[in-house]
Amino acid sequence: MLRASFIPSRPQRQLRDLTRYRRTLTQERTREKQRAEKLLEDAQIKLSSVISDIFGVSGRAMLDALIAGQHNPHELAALARKNVRAPASVLQEALTGHFTGHHAFMPGMMPARIDALTAQINALTARIGEAIAPCAAQVAQLDEIPGTGITAAQDLLAGTGTGMPRFPAPGHLVSWAKSAPRARQSAGRSKAATTGKGNPWLGGTLGEAAAAARTRTFLASRYKRIARRRGRNRAVVATGNSLLTIIWHLLSDPEARFTDPGPDWHDRLAPLRRKRQLIAELERLSGKKVTLEDAA
Fold it and tell me: Coil, strand, or helix at residue 248?
């Protein structure tokens, strides 16, 4: 029987509704941008290869001019703002294509759709900020984790809640989230471990946060180490597990603050781990307690 402590409170359920709908609209806006980019590529307009966001200020000005009938690459490239790093010649080459009336019809509707979705996302974000105001301290704690911004922190709190006492240890939180690999054996032989079917909303947030932590941090180093040996998918899951462990420690102590161990944590840890392994092996063989003393 499910214990009452595991049933989310009404405010948390409402917060989940808000954050999940925001994620849904954000994904739909991303798909709409991808559709527009695909149509531009069909017209041989390679704007996305020289501008990081074709729906930013510069990209939007060029797109609006294309839709309005301006097809001169020189005139279009002149619309770029100063923050665009690509040279004018590169922009002109990227804007040289075969943009016809067919290509202008659908992209002409897409910016309005994207603007409408952005307005809805902003309204949801404001409502989420009001709903999560009592947990502002916890949001600030999670915001300190690399790869976890305010939005991800809000999504994580909506998924896990702030009541960590119901999880006796970090592993319980990881197991509850169905993020821990399950041991699989058959006829005495181990098979590839897989995770259970957990909360897809929480899993998506963890995956995005794990993918975003690609700087010189402990999480980035952990991701790279595992990705080299086990592949990217397992690295994302393992990094997500580390994130959940960090979240448990932070939310269990209101005064706790995240301190990054550094990208060389595993390198510094390896000699200590090897020393412990050798001591344990010697104690097992000798049946005696081993102590170390500083050399003269």
Answer: helix
Domain count, the chain: 2
Q: Strand 189-190 relative to strand 185-186: parallel, antiparallel, unpaired?
A: antiparallel
What is the spatial distance between Cα 3 and Cα 176, in angstroms, rounded to a whole number?
Answer: 14
Burial of 227 from C-beta contacts in 10 A (0-12 / 13-18 / 19+)? middle
In whole angstroms, give the CA distance from residue 271 to residue 278. 11
C-alpha span between 223 and 234 (Å, rounded)? 9
Residue pLDDT, tens place only, 103-149: 888 878 888 899 999 999 999 999 999 999 999 999 999 998 888 88
pLDDT, one tens digit per residue, over 107-119 is 788 888 999 999 9
Check residue 227 and give its pLDDT. Answer: 85
Q: Which of 131, 147, 165 is the last residue of a domain?
A: 131
Is pLDDT above 50 for 4?
Answer: no
Helix (H), strand (E) at residue 136: helix 136-143
The residue segments making up the domain with residue 279 are 138-178+197-296
| Residue-level pLDDT at 196 | 60
In a domain? residue 225? yes
CB atoms within 10 A of CB 246: 22
b/e string for 149-176 if b means 16 or more Cβ within 10 A?
A: eebbbbbbbbbbbbebeebeebeebbbb
DSSP 10-77: HHHHHHHHHHHHHHHHHHHHHHHHHHHHHHHHHTT--GGGT-S-TTSHHHHHHHHHHHHT---HHHHH
Q: Mark whether 25 and 159 lie in a shared domain.
A: no
Do 143 and 125 share a structural domain? no
User: What is the value of pTM for the model shown?
Assistant: 0.76
Closest CA to 35 of 95, 122, 86, 105: 105
Tell me, yes or no, whether 22 and 126 share the same domain. yes
